[in-house]
Write a structure and sequence with these properties.
Elements: E1 27-29, E2 33-35, H1 42-80, H2 90-112, H3 114-118, H4 120-130, H5 132-141, H6 149-158, H7 160-176, H8 182-209, H9 220-223, H10 226-239, E3 242-243, H11 250-258, H12 260-290, E4 297-299, E5 302-304, H13 308-328, H14 330-351, H15 357-389, H16 402-420, H17 422-437, H18 441-467
Length: 472
Protein backbone atom coordinates (compact mmCIF):
# COMPACT_ATOMS: atom_id res chain seq x y z
CA UNK A 1 0.00 0.00 0.00
CA UNK A 2 1.09 3.57 -0.63
CA UNK A 3 2.14 5.45 2.42
CA UNK A 4 -0.13 8.36 3.38
CA UNK A 5 1.08 11.86 2.83
CA UNK A 6 2.65 13.17 6.03
CA UNK A 7 0.57 16.03 7.35
CA UNK A 8 3.72 17.82 8.41
CA UNK A 9 4.73 18.52 4.83
CA UNK A 10 1.42 20.04 3.78
CA UNK A 11 2.72 23.53 4.32
CA UNK A 12 0.63 25.13 1.57
CA UNK A 13 -2.73 24.32 -0.04
CA UNK A 14 -3.14 21.04 1.87
CA UNK A 15 -6.60 20.52 0.32
CA UNK A 16 -4.88 19.96 -3.03
CA UNK A 17 -3.18 16.84 -1.77
CA UNK A 18 -5.57 15.19 0.64
CA UNK A 19 -7.16 13.15 -2.13
CA UNK A 20 -3.86 11.94 -3.53
CA UNK A 21 -3.60 8.82 -1.36
CA UNK A 22 -5.42 6.47 -3.81
CA UNK A 23 -2.52 6.88 -6.24
CA UNK A 24 1.18 7.50 -5.79
CA UNK A 25 1.92 9.75 -2.84
CA UNK A 26 2.44 13.44 -3.48
CA UNK A 27 4.46 15.51 -1.07
CA UNK A 28 4.47 19.29 -0.98
CA UNK A 29 7.58 20.97 0.31
CA UNK A 30 8.03 24.65 1.23
CA UNK A 31 8.07 27.24 -1.56
CA UNK A 32 5.47 25.25 -3.49
CA UNK A 33 7.65 22.31 -4.54
CA UNK A 34 5.85 19.01 -5.26
CA UNK A 35 7.55 15.60 -5.05
CA UNK A 36 6.19 12.35 -6.51
CA UNK A 37 4.38 13.89 -9.47
CA UNK A 38 3.37 11.29 -12.06
CA UNK A 39 0.53 12.24 -14.43
CA UNK A 40 0.71 8.81 -16.11
CA UNK A 41 -0.53 7.29 -12.82
CA UNK A 42 -4.30 7.19 -13.47
CA UNK A 43 -5.19 7.05 -9.77
CA UNK A 44 -3.06 10.06 -8.91
CA UNK A 45 -4.29 11.97 -11.94
CA UNK A 46 -7.97 11.37 -11.26
CA UNK A 47 -7.67 11.97 -7.52
CA UNK A 48 -5.86 15.31 -7.56
CA UNK A 49 -3.35 15.54 -10.39
CA UNK A 50 -5.81 16.96 -12.92
CA UNK A 51 -6.87 19.80 -10.63
CA UNK A 52 -3.27 20.78 -9.86
CA UNK A 53 -2.35 20.65 -13.54
CA UNK A 54 -5.35 22.79 -14.53
CA UNK A 55 -4.55 25.43 -11.92
CA UNK A 56 -0.98 25.72 -13.15
CA UNK A 57 -2.15 25.77 -16.74
CA UNK A 58 -4.51 28.70 -16.10
CA UNK A 59 -1.79 30.92 -14.67
CA UNK A 60 0.71 29.75 -17.25
CA UNK A 61 -1.70 30.81 -20.00
CA UNK A 62 -2.21 34.24 -18.45
CA UNK A 63 1.50 34.93 -18.04
CA UNK A 64 2.26 33.68 -21.54
CA UNK A 65 -0.61 35.75 -22.92
CA UNK A 66 1.05 38.89 -21.60
CA UNK A 67 4.37 37.72 -22.99
CA UNK A 68 2.86 37.60 -26.49
CA UNK A 69 1.22 40.99 -25.95
CA UNK A 70 4.59 42.56 -25.21
CA UNK A 71 6.28 40.59 -27.99
CA UNK A 72 3.85 41.93 -30.61
CA UNK A 73 3.47 45.54 -29.42
CA UNK A 74 5.86 46.88 -32.03
CA UNK A 75 3.97 45.20 -34.89
CA UNK A 76 1.12 47.66 -34.39
CA UNK A 77 3.05 50.60 -32.93
CA UNK A 78 5.18 50.96 -36.09
CA UNK A 79 2.06 51.62 -38.15
CA UNK A 80 1.28 54.63 -35.94
CA UNK A 81 4.82 56.06 -35.90
CA UNK A 82 4.47 58.31 -38.99
CA UNK A 83 1.35 59.97 -37.56
CA UNK A 84 3.26 60.55 -34.29
CA UNK A 85 6.05 62.40 -36.08
CA UNK A 86 8.60 59.60 -36.60
CA UNK A 87 10.26 59.31 -40.01
CA UNK A 88 11.73 55.88 -40.75
CA UNK A 89 12.19 54.21 -44.13
CA UNK A 90 10.72 50.83 -45.14
CA UNK A 91 13.78 48.81 -44.15
CA UNK A 92 13.90 50.44 -40.70
CA UNK A 93 10.20 49.77 -40.12
CA UNK A 94 10.63 46.08 -40.94
CA UNK A 95 13.61 45.89 -38.59
CA UNK A 96 11.45 47.28 -35.77
CA UNK A 97 8.84 44.62 -36.57
CA UNK A 98 11.28 41.72 -36.78
CA UNK A 99 13.79 42.55 -34.02
CA UNK A 100 11.53 41.39 -31.15
CA UNK A 101 11.17 38.01 -32.87
CA UNK A 102 14.91 37.66 -33.43
CA UNK A 103 15.66 38.33 -29.77
CA UNK A 104 12.66 36.37 -28.51
CA UNK A 105 13.61 33.32 -30.55
CA UNK A 106 17.18 33.45 -29.25
CA UNK A 107 16.04 33.87 -25.64
CA UNK A 108 13.94 30.74 -25.95
CA UNK A 109 17.09 28.62 -25.75
CA UNK A 110 18.12 29.73 -22.24
CA UNK A 111 14.48 30.10 -21.17
CA UNK A 112 13.94 26.40 -21.87
CA UNK A 113 16.45 25.48 -19.18
CA UNK A 114 15.20 27.92 -16.56
CA UNK A 115 12.26 25.68 -15.60
CA UNK A 116 14.50 22.70 -14.71
CA UNK A 117 16.97 25.05 -13.03
CA UNK A 118 14.64 27.23 -10.95
CA UNK A 119 11.22 25.57 -11.06
CA UNK A 120 8.21 26.34 -13.25
CA UNK A 121 6.45 28.58 -10.75
CA UNK A 122 9.61 30.48 -9.81
CA UNK A 123 10.62 31.12 -13.40
CA UNK A 124 7.09 32.22 -14.37
CA UNK A 125 7.31 34.91 -11.68
CA UNK A 126 10.70 36.09 -12.93
CA UNK A 127 9.87 36.00 -16.63
CA UNK A 128 6.62 37.90 -16.04
CA UNK A 129 8.49 40.56 -14.06
CA UNK A 130 10.94 41.02 -16.95
CA UNK A 131 8.03 42.17 -19.11
CA UNK A 132 7.95 45.44 -17.17
CA UNK A 133 11.23 46.48 -18.82
CA UNK A 134 10.10 46.58 -22.48
CA UNK A 135 6.70 48.08 -21.65
CA UNK A 136 8.21 51.00 -19.73
CA UNK A 137 10.97 51.35 -22.33
CA UNK A 138 8.45 51.57 -25.17
CA UNK A 139 6.45 54.24 -23.33
CA UNK A 140 9.58 56.36 -22.88
CA UNK A 141 11.04 56.14 -26.39
CA UNK A 142 7.80 56.71 -28.36
CA UNK A 143 7.01 59.81 -26.34
CA UNK A 144 9.64 61.80 -28.29
CA UNK A 145 9.73 61.81 -32.13
CA UNK A 146 13.42 62.76 -31.92
CA UNK A 147 14.33 59.38 -30.40
CA UNK A 148 17.14 57.95 -32.57
CA UNK A 149 16.43 54.82 -34.59
CA UNK A 150 19.18 52.90 -32.76
CA UNK A 151 17.44 53.55 -29.43
CA UNK A 152 14.09 52.51 -30.88
CA UNK A 153 15.63 49.31 -32.23
CA UNK A 154 17.20 48.51 -28.84
CA UNK A 155 13.89 48.98 -27.03
CA UNK A 156 12.13 46.86 -29.67
CA UNK A 157 14.72 44.16 -29.00
CA UNK A 158 13.76 44.22 -25.31
CA UNK A 159 10.26 43.11 -26.33
CA UNK A 160 11.94 39.79 -27.07
CA UNK A 161 11.56 39.03 -23.34
CA UNK A 162 7.92 38.28 -24.16
CA UNK A 163 8.87 35.85 -26.91
CA UNK A 164 11.13 33.85 -24.63
CA UNK A 165 8.26 33.07 -22.27
CA UNK A 166 6.71 30.57 -24.66
CA UNK A 167 9.57 28.05 -24.48
CA UNK A 168 9.72 27.92 -20.69
CA UNK A 169 5.94 27.86 -20.35
CA UNK A 170 5.52 24.96 -22.77
CA UNK A 171 8.45 23.01 -21.29
CA UNK A 172 6.88 23.45 -17.85
CA UNK A 173 3.32 22.46 -18.78
CA UNK A 174 4.42 19.31 -20.62
CA UNK A 175 5.49 17.83 -17.24
CA UNK A 176 2.04 18.43 -15.73
CA UNK A 177 0.01 16.42 -18.26
CA UNK A 178 -0.09 12.75 -19.33
CA UNK A 179 0.92 11.89 -22.86
CA UNK A 180 -2.66 11.27 -23.95
CA UNK A 181 -3.65 14.84 -23.02
CA UNK A 182 -0.54 16.75 -24.05
CA UNK A 183 -1.92 17.88 -27.41
CA UNK A 184 -4.94 19.62 -25.88
CA UNK A 185 -3.04 21.03 -22.89
CA UNK A 186 -0.11 22.33 -24.91
CA UNK A 187 -2.55 23.65 -27.51
CA UNK A 188 -4.50 25.59 -24.88
CA UNK A 189 -1.34 26.94 -23.32
CA UNK A 190 -0.01 28.06 -26.67
CA UNK A 191 -3.36 29.43 -27.86
CA UNK A 192 -3.73 31.51 -24.71
CA UNK A 193 -0.33 32.97 -25.41
CA UNK A 194 -0.96 33.44 -29.12
CA UNK A 195 -4.13 35.38 -28.30
CA UNK A 196 -1.87 38.02 -26.81
CA UNK A 197 -0.81 38.97 -30.34
CA UNK A 198 -4.43 39.47 -31.35
CA UNK A 199 -5.34 41.42 -28.23
CA UNK A 200 -2.32 43.71 -28.62
CA UNK A 201 -3.25 44.46 -32.23
CA UNK A 202 -6.88 45.05 -31.25
CA UNK A 203 -6.35 47.07 -28.09
CA UNK A 204 -3.36 49.29 -28.92
CA UNK A 205 -4.99 51.28 -31.77
CA UNK A 206 -8.00 51.91 -29.53
CA UNK A 207 -5.98 52.86 -26.44
CA UNK A 208 -3.67 55.30 -28.22
CA UNK A 209 -6.47 57.11 -30.07
CA UNK A 210 -9.54 57.09 -27.84
CA UNK A 211 -10.15 60.60 -26.54
CA UNK A 212 -6.79 61.75 -27.87
CA UNK A 213 -8.12 64.12 -30.52
CA UNK A 214 -5.54 64.84 -33.21
CA UNK A 215 -2.51 63.67 -31.22
CA UNK A 216 -1.71 60.02 -30.52
CA UNK A 217 -0.99 58.83 -27.01
CA UNK A 218 1.62 56.26 -28.03
CA UNK A 219 3.15 55.79 -24.54
CA UNK A 220 -0.10 54.12 -23.45
CA UNK A 221 0.72 51.26 -25.82
CA UNK A 222 3.20 50.10 -23.19
CA UNK A 223 1.87 51.52 -19.94
CA UNK A 224 -1.61 49.99 -20.19
CA UNK A 225 -0.24 46.46 -19.69
CA UNK A 226 1.68 47.10 -16.47
CA UNK A 227 -1.23 46.39 -14.05
CA UNK A 228 -1.93 43.05 -15.75
CA UNK A 229 1.74 42.08 -15.61
CA UNK A 230 1.70 42.72 -11.86
CA UNK A 231 -1.38 40.48 -11.52
CA UNK A 232 0.46 37.71 -13.39
CA UNK A 233 3.48 38.02 -11.09
CA UNK A 234 1.36 37.80 -7.93
CA UNK A 235 -0.85 35.01 -9.30
CA UNK A 236 2.09 32.85 -10.34
CA UNK A 237 3.73 33.36 -6.94
CA UNK A 238 0.72 32.20 -4.95
CA UNK A 239 -1.00 29.70 -7.27
CA UNK A 240 1.60 27.86 -9.36
CA UNK A 241 3.86 24.96 -8.36
CA UNK A 242 7.38 23.66 -8.97
CA UNK A 243 7.76 19.97 -9.83
CA UNK A 244 10.86 18.27 -8.47
CA UNK A 245 10.88 15.75 -11.33
CA UNK A 246 10.83 18.51 -13.98
CA UNK A 247 14.51 18.20 -14.54
CA UNK A 248 16.37 18.52 -17.82
CA UNK A 249 20.10 18.04 -17.47
CA UNK A 250 22.88 18.57 -19.99
CA UNK A 251 22.66 14.92 -20.98
CA UNK A 252 18.98 15.26 -21.89
CA UNK A 253 19.65 18.41 -23.89
CA UNK A 254 22.53 16.84 -25.79
CA UNK A 255 20.40 13.78 -26.48
CA UNK A 256 17.72 16.03 -27.95
CA UNK A 257 20.22 17.92 -30.09
CA UNK A 258 21.67 14.69 -31.46
CA UNK A 259 18.27 13.37 -32.51
CA UNK A 260 17.39 13.87 -36.20
CA UNK A 261 13.78 14.29 -35.03
CA UNK A 262 14.66 17.59 -33.37
CA UNK A 263 15.99 19.13 -36.57
CA UNK A 264 13.13 17.85 -38.70
CA UNK A 265 10.55 19.12 -36.23
CA UNK A 266 12.35 22.47 -36.01
CA UNK A 267 11.90 22.93 -39.76
CA UNK A 268 8.23 22.02 -39.55
CA UNK A 269 7.69 24.35 -36.61
CA UNK A 270 9.31 27.24 -38.46
CA UNK A 271 6.74 26.54 -41.17
CA UNK A 272 3.73 26.48 -38.84
CA UNK A 273 4.42 28.65 -35.80
CA UNK A 274 6.96 30.77 -37.68
CA UNK A 275 4.31 31.55 -40.28
CA UNK A 276 1.77 32.42 -37.60
CA UNK A 277 3.98 34.81 -35.65
CA UNK A 278 5.74 36.18 -38.71
CA UNK A 279 2.59 37.03 -40.66
CA UNK A 280 0.89 38.27 -37.48
CA UNK A 281 3.76 40.72 -37.05
CA UNK A 282 3.65 42.08 -40.60
CA UNK A 283 -0.11 41.93 -41.18
CA UNK A 284 -0.82 45.48 -39.95
CA UNK A 285 1.97 46.79 -42.20
CA UNK A 286 0.79 44.74 -45.20
CA UNK A 287 -2.73 46.11 -44.86
CA UNK A 288 -1.48 49.68 -44.45
CA UNK A 289 0.70 49.38 -47.58
CA UNK A 290 -1.68 47.47 -49.85
CA UNK A 291 -4.99 48.93 -48.69
CA UNK A 292 -4.35 52.23 -46.86
CA UNK A 293 -8.04 53.12 -46.93
CA UNK A 294 -8.75 49.99 -44.86
CA UNK A 295 -5.78 50.23 -42.49
CA UNK A 296 -8.00 51.60 -39.72
CA UNK A 297 -11.68 52.14 -39.09
CA UNK A 298 -13.20 54.84 -36.90
CA UNK A 299 -15.13 53.48 -33.92
CA UNK A 300 -16.52 56.28 -31.84
CA UNK A 301 -13.60 58.39 -30.70
CA UNK A 302 -11.04 55.66 -31.41
CA UNK A 303 -9.63 53.73 -34.35
CA UNK A 304 -9.65 50.00 -34.98
CA UNK A 305 -7.39 47.87 -37.16
CA UNK A 306 -8.71 44.58 -38.55
CA UNK A 307 -5.17 43.18 -38.52
CA UNK A 308 -5.92 41.58 -35.14
CA UNK A 309 -8.25 39.08 -36.84
CA UNK A 310 -5.30 37.12 -38.25
CA UNK A 311 -3.69 36.47 -34.89
CA UNK A 312 -7.12 35.86 -33.35
CA UNK A 313 -8.27 33.08 -35.68
CA UNK A 314 -4.81 31.51 -35.69
CA UNK A 315 -4.75 31.44 -31.90
CA UNK A 316 -8.21 29.93 -31.63
CA UNK A 317 -7.33 27.25 -34.18
CA UNK A 318 -4.24 26.10 -32.30
CA UNK A 319 -5.85 24.00 -29.50
CA UNK A 320 -8.15 22.36 -32.03
CA UNK A 321 -5.12 21.44 -34.08
CA UNK A 322 -3.70 19.83 -30.95
CA UNK A 323 -6.93 17.99 -30.21
CA UNK A 324 -7.23 16.71 -33.79
CA UNK A 325 -3.60 15.58 -33.53
CA UNK A 326 -4.44 13.68 -30.33
CA UNK A 327 -7.05 11.79 -32.31
CA UNK A 328 -5.64 11.45 -35.83
CA UNK A 329 -1.92 12.05 -35.35
CA UNK A 330 0.03 15.29 -35.64
CA UNK A 331 1.56 14.51 -39.03
CA UNK A 332 -1.85 14.08 -40.67
CA UNK A 333 -3.09 17.47 -39.46
CA UNK A 334 0.22 19.15 -40.28
CA UNK A 335 0.05 17.82 -43.85
CA UNK A 336 -3.40 19.35 -44.27
CA UNK A 337 -2.16 22.60 -42.72
CA UNK A 338 0.72 23.02 -45.18
CA UNK A 339 -1.56 22.29 -48.15
CA UNK A 340 -4.08 24.91 -47.02
CA UNK A 341 -1.35 27.44 -46.20
CA UNK A 342 0.16 27.10 -49.68
CA UNK A 343 -3.25 27.45 -51.31
CA UNK A 344 -4.08 30.46 -49.13
CA UNK A 345 -0.92 32.31 -50.16
CA UNK A 346 -1.47 31.39 -53.83
CA UNK A 347 -4.98 32.83 -53.60
CA UNK A 348 -3.58 36.08 -52.15
CA UNK A 349 -1.05 36.33 -55.00
CA UNK A 350 -3.67 35.68 -57.68
CA UNK A 351 -6.21 38.15 -56.29
CA UNK A 352 -3.86 41.02 -55.34
CA UNK A 353 -4.24 42.67 -58.78
CA UNK A 354 -7.99 42.87 -58.14
CA UNK A 355 -7.30 45.40 -55.37
CA UNK A 356 -10.05 43.84 -53.25
CA UNK A 357 -9.37 44.22 -49.53
CA UNK A 358 -12.01 41.73 -48.42
CA UNK A 359 -10.61 38.95 -50.61
CA UNK A 360 -7.13 39.78 -49.32
CA UNK A 361 -8.35 39.59 -45.73
CA UNK A 362 -10.33 36.36 -46.28
CA UNK A 363 -7.45 34.45 -47.88
CA UNK A 364 -5.01 35.61 -45.24
CA UNK A 365 -7.40 34.47 -42.54
CA UNK A 366 -7.41 31.02 -44.19
CA UNK A 367 -3.61 31.07 -43.91
CA UNK A 368 -3.81 32.04 -40.24
CA UNK A 369 -6.34 29.30 -39.40
CA UNK A 370 -4.19 26.67 -41.11
CA UNK A 371 -0.98 27.87 -39.46
CA UNK A 372 -2.69 27.94 -36.06
CA UNK A 373 -4.00 24.40 -36.41
CA UNK A 374 -0.60 23.36 -37.76
CA UNK A 375 1.07 24.85 -34.67
CA UNK A 376 -0.87 22.58 -32.35
CA UNK A 377 -0.48 19.53 -34.56
CA UNK A 378 3.26 19.95 -35.14
CA UNK A 379 3.91 20.52 -31.45
CA UNK A 380 1.94 17.38 -30.62
CA UNK A 381 4.27 15.37 -32.88
CA UNK A 382 7.32 16.20 -30.75
CA UNK A 383 6.62 14.11 -27.60
CA UNK A 384 5.44 11.26 -29.83
CA UNK A 385 8.66 11.31 -31.85
CA UNK A 386 10.81 11.21 -28.74
CA UNK A 387 8.69 8.55 -27.02
CA UNK A 388 9.05 6.41 -30.14
CA UNK A 389 12.79 7.03 -30.13
CA UNK A 390 12.89 5.83 -26.50
CA UNK A 391 11.10 2.59 -27.42
CA UNK A 392 7.64 3.32 -26.02
CA UNK A 393 5.12 0.65 -27.02
CA UNK A 394 2.41 3.16 -27.97
CA UNK A 395 4.35 6.38 -28.49
CA UNK A 396 1.23 8.34 -29.37
CA UNK A 397 -0.29 7.69 -25.94
CA UNK A 398 2.64 6.69 -23.73
CA UNK A 399 5.37 9.12 -22.75
CA UNK A 400 8.06 6.57 -21.92
CA UNK A 401 10.35 6.73 -18.90
CA UNK A 402 11.30 9.92 -17.09
CA UNK A 403 14.52 10.16 -19.09
CA UNK A 404 12.66 10.28 -22.40
CA UNK A 405 10.19 12.78 -20.92
CA UNK A 406 13.04 15.09 -19.95
CA UNK A 407 14.59 14.79 -23.39
CA UNK A 408 11.22 15.56 -24.97
CA UNK A 409 10.77 18.58 -22.68
CA UNK A 410 14.19 19.91 -23.70
CA UNK A 411 13.29 19.31 -27.35
CA UNK A 412 10.00 21.20 -26.94
CA UNK A 413 11.84 24.30 -25.82
CA UNK A 414 14.60 24.05 -28.43
CA UNK A 415 12.13 23.50 -31.27
CA UNK A 416 9.99 26.38 -30.00
CA UNK A 417 13.09 28.58 -30.20
CA UNK A 418 13.85 27.62 -33.78
CA UNK A 419 10.22 28.06 -34.77
CA UNK A 420 10.15 31.61 -33.45
CA UNK A 421 12.83 32.63 -35.94
CA UNK A 422 10.02 32.60 -38.49
CA UNK A 423 8.88 35.81 -36.84
CA UNK A 424 12.16 37.37 -37.96
CA UNK A 425 12.48 35.65 -41.35
CA UNK A 426 9.03 36.53 -42.70
CA UNK A 427 9.21 40.31 -42.08
CA UNK A 428 12.75 40.43 -43.44
CA UNK A 429 11.83 38.49 -46.60
CA UNK A 430 8.77 40.64 -47.22
CA UNK A 431 10.72 43.81 -46.45
CA UNK A 432 13.40 42.75 -48.93
CA UNK A 433 10.73 41.97 -51.52
CA UNK A 434 9.18 45.40 -51.00
CA UNK A 435 12.42 47.36 -51.22
CA UNK A 436 13.81 45.47 -54.24
CA UNK A 437 10.70 44.80 -56.33
CA UNK A 438 8.29 47.42 -55.04
CA UNK A 439 5.77 44.82 -53.89
CA UNK A 440 5.22 41.70 -51.80
CA UNK A 441 4.36 39.15 -54.50
CA UNK A 442 7.89 37.79 -54.94
CA UNK A 443 8.29 37.21 -51.21
CA UNK A 444 4.92 35.46 -51.02
CA UNK A 445 5.92 33.15 -53.87
CA UNK A 446 9.01 32.09 -51.92
CA UNK A 447 6.79 31.07 -49.00
CA UNK A 448 4.63 28.89 -51.24
CA UNK A 449 7.77 27.05 -52.37
CA UNK A 450 8.86 26.62 -48.73
CA UNK A 451 5.49 25.12 -47.77
CA UNK A 452 5.75 22.57 -50.58
CA UNK A 453 9.16 21.44 -49.28
CA UNK A 454 7.88 21.21 -45.70
CA UNK A 455 4.86 19.28 -46.90
CA UNK A 456 7.18 16.68 -48.41
CA UNK A 457 9.12 16.36 -45.13
CA UNK A 458 5.91 15.87 -43.15
CA UNK A 459 4.67 13.19 -45.52
CA UNK A 460 8.00 11.38 -45.12
CA UNK A 461 7.66 11.44 -41.32
CA UNK A 462 4.08 10.13 -41.51
CA UNK A 463 5.14 7.24 -43.77
CA UNK A 464 8.07 6.43 -41.47
CA UNK A 465 5.70 6.26 -38.49
CA UNK A 466 3.18 4.05 -40.24
CA UNK A 467 5.89 1.55 -41.12
CA UNK A 468 6.44 1.22 -37.39
CA UNK A 469 2.70 1.02 -36.71
CA UNK A 470 2.82 4.35 -34.85
CA UNK A 471 0.52 7.29 -35.47
CA UNK A 472 2.88 10.27 -35.26
Amino acid sequence: MNAPIPSSVLTEDPTDLVAATPGAPLVRRPRRWIDGWNPEDHQQWQAIGASIAQRNLRWSIFAEFLGFVVWQLWSIVVVALPAAGFHFDTAQIFWLISMPSLVGATLRFPYTFMVPKLGGRNWTVISAALLLIPTVGLAICVSDPQTPFAVMLFVAALAGFGGGNFASSMANITFFYPQRKKGWALGLNAAGGNLGAAVAQLAVPIVITIGAGVALRLPLAGLVWIPLIIVAIVGAWFRMDNLSNARADLKASLAALKAPALWLMSLLYIGTFGSFIGFAGVFPKLIADQFPAHATFAVGGATLSLAFLGALVGSLARPFGGRLADRFGGSTITIVAFVVMALGILAVIVTLPLDNFWLFLAFFLVLFVASGAGNGATYRMIPTMFALRAGAVDAHRTAGDIGSQRTAAAALGIIAAFGAYGGFIIPQVLGYSKTTTGGYTTGLEWFVAAYVVLLGITIGIAVWGRRRAVRI
